[in-house]
Design brief:
- The protein is mostly helical and 150 residues long.
- The protein has helices spanning 3-8, 14-29, 45-54, 64-68, 72-85, 96-104, 123-133, and strands at residues 137-139, 142-144.
- Strands 1-2 form a two-stranded antiparallel ribbon.
- Helix 2 packs antiparallel against helix 5.
- The longest helix has 16 residues, at 14-29.
- It is globular and about 65 Å long.
């Protein structure tokens, strides 16, 4: 889900762009967004892809079957487009028509900025957040409520 929907409940056309970016990264890597990554258990797929991109090691995330077929350049382009689609600010994300154009042509692409949701929260962090805010909140369909006597 896009950050503007999760945080503010705002739904826009950029919601689908964000989801498409996650899907693109999942296809290229052969991994799901919600699993731990190697020595970085706090990173999700978006964060892991971003860290590799920043270190000029994006080839490391590509699924081995794509590498064997010789699609490394196309996969790198897809990673870049995927990262552009998951930008934190909805205004920074391309429109779907631009995404289709970027994937279908060899034009130069803009550099992605840091994406949204690059870190996963642990359950202990959720508890700390609840204590800090002092308000009930929900995480993954589980409600946590602070009960106080009158």
């Amino acid at each position: 889900m896009s950050p503007e929907y999760v945080i503010f409940g705002n739904f826009s056309t950029k919601y689908d762009v964000f989801s498409f970016g996650v899907l693109l990264l999942e296809i290229i890597s052969g991994k799901r967004n919600n699993v731990d990554y190697q020595n970085h258990p706090a990173l999700n797929l978006i964060g892991f892809a971003w860290e590799l991109w920043r270190q000029d090691k994006a080839l490391e995330i590509i699924d081995s079957s794509l590498e064997e077929l010789g699609f490394s350049n196309e996969a790198l382009r897809c990673i870049q487009v995927g990262l552009l689609c998951v930008q934190e600010c909805a205004a920074d994300r391309p429109a779907m028509s631009e995404v289709v154009f970027m994937l279908g042509n060899n034009t130069s692409l803009p550099s992605p900025k840091q994406p949204a949701f690059i870190l996963r929260r642990s359950s202990s962090n959720l508890g700390k957040l609840m204590n800090r805010l002092g308000e009930p909140f929900s995480a993954r369909e589980v409600s946590i409520t602070v009960i106080e006597a009158r």
